[in-house]
Amino acid sequence: MIRNLVQPALVLLAQMALTLALAPLLPGIVNKVKALFAGRVGPPVFQLYFDLAKLLRKGAVFSRTTTGVFLAGPAAAVAVPFTAALLIPMGAATAPVSFAGDAVVLAYLFGVARFFVVLSALDTGSAFEGMGAAREVTFAVLAEPALFMGLATLARLAGSPSLAPMLTAAGQGWRAAGGPLALVLTAWVIVFLVENCRIPFDDPNTHLELTMIHEAMVLDHSGPPLAAVLYGASLKLWVLGALVVKLCLPLRGTWWIDWPAFLGGMVLLAAGVGVLESIMARLRMRRVSQALIAAVVSGTFGFLLLLLA
């Protein structure tokens, strides 16, 4: 009985330790690849760790118009991806927390985080941050159906509404259901880029009023709250990236193969994002909605194709 309890505990500790420690590495890899494409040395891959340490040592400045709601955004930005990471099997076939319907919980967890971040932006009373919040919510309305159609396809393939068997069946099902899985992968890659504010849909480094979406909502944060926002963004990048990687990764059931393969997949995904951002320009705002509608259609066709097969 003790052995049955020790193994899940070790999986939980390993997964959470690696998630918390390695998540800030992904933005560093993306920025390094972009710098190399531009012919520059660029910042070190550990730059976000240095930025977080610097921000945590600083004091925070709060507008007199804000209330306690203002801090709910940074708190949710960290707590929600951390909770979501417990539901996804990363380097192993099982997740630390798994139950029937956890796929639906995962999708709505990010909705909860978005709600508090938007609430925090509106609490500042700034029209500029309100504009960013409106854009964020508008695009989320289209991103969520694309994510759900992908989850529905995997649930149909696995015959289970739980994430662990769904992702396991997806990784091992490319030979039998390659077409539907390719359509789901297309939809999820678009959702991954939109939800993480990456080019060509958003730009985390922009400060142009006409193009800002997510960054417009966090302009008033400073010090430790800004560190929470940045760290939460890297956790979200890691969690949603894990979904994409596990969709493509066939599991072998042995930890010494699955964990290195998973971590290698995450590095390749971050490098791929860096390459994409180096060769593509940011889309016009109206094109973002069209791309998200294409993601919904792709996920829906994947589900129908699997249903009719």
Instruction: Look at the structure and give the mean pLDDT.
Output: 89
Given helix and strand content, the structural type is: mainly alpha
Counted by DSSP, the helix tally is 12
Distance between the termini: 43 Å
Tally the beta strands.
Answer: 0
Q: What does the largest sheet look like?
A: none
Strand content: under 5%
C-alpha geometry: globular
Uncertain residue ranges: none
Using only C-alpha atoms, the radius of gyration works out to 19 Å
Helix coverage percent of residues?
over 70%
List the helices and strands in order: HHHHHHHHHHHH
What's the layout of helices and strands?
Elements: H1 2-22, H2 25-37, H3 47-57, H4 72-85, H5 102-123, H6 127-158, H7 163-172, H8 178-195, H9 214-217, H10 223-248, H11 255-279, H12 285-308
Keywords for this entry:
transmembrane helix, transmembrane, 71% helix, 12 helices, mainly alpha, 309 residues, single chain
